[in-house]
Design brief:
single chain; 70 residues; mainly alpha; 434 Repressor (Amino-terminal Domain)
């Protein structure tokens, strides 16, 4: 995935997580992904699969289009 896109996605996830008052542990539990994986996504160090994108969007009760609206 493009580094600029990963960075934008990382910012979006952090902003939504803080808006919902979720810790990384909270979000990783809700999205059923590892906390270290989430941390790497939030720092744009890891590429992300479509299924993880969907699970994170679901954790915020957002559609993928709403979630990716950045």
């Amino acid at each position: 995935m493009d580094k600029d896109l990963l960075a934008k996605l990382a910012i979006r996830i952090k902003e939504l997580r803080k808006l919902h008052h979720y810790t990384q542990d909270d979000l990783s539990h809700l999205a059923k992904i590892g906390r270290s994986t989430l941390g790497n996504i939030e720092t744009a160090q890891n590429d992300i699969t479509f299924s993880k994108l969907k699970r994170i969007a679901d954790a915020f009760n957002l559609s993928l289009s709403e979630f990716l609206n950045f």
